[in-house]
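Lab notebook page, bench 4
Experiment: in silico fold of construct C2
Operator: M.H.
Input chain length: 194 residues
Purpose: comparison with the prior construct
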Amino acid sequence: MSIMSATIPPKKRATVDEFLARVANHDRVELVDGEIVEQAISGAAHSLAMAAVTDTLHPFRRKPGDPRGLGGWWLCIDLGIQYPNGDIYAHDLSGFRRDQHAGPPEGFPVELRPDWACEVLSHDKRDLVVKPRTLHAARVPHYWVIDHVQKLLFVHRWSPDGYVVALRASAGDTARAEPFDAIEIQVSDLFGDD
């Protein structure tokens, strides 16, 4: 008597056109590893953390040489970025160095590799495993993960063998977080703490 094993056909990968149709329908989605994944609507703590990071990094949003100082970045919120593997992520925040990009990112989805991406932790597996693999393969220099529940900041720096944790910091710490290490930040500020 022989036992026949049933083979499960591979799951059909979603196409960019299917993704774009969902976006045109005003769905909040990402294309992750060939699957269209719905994004949750942000809760208050998540939203406050995103706003706080934006406020903290505001001095970098200026043109280089601005008399008010710093500058040098195009900083974006929820920008749809397509990576070479076909994944399309709407990172909570992303940044592009102005010295490497003459103008801000354009189009949708943007096919320009960011120089920095940041996720306020909401999907542990996606934010901590899946997205870092894609970003590493695309050679994104820096990836931040902000855990607004535990009040932790993790700064990852690209290296050939994988991301290296360049900084671990928590509420109450003062830190210089790459690639924005020209300023000291109060880590508590990243969580919207008063």
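Observations: The two ends are 71 Å apart (CA to CA). Helices lie at 16-24, 44-57, 124-137.
Next step: discuss at group meeting.
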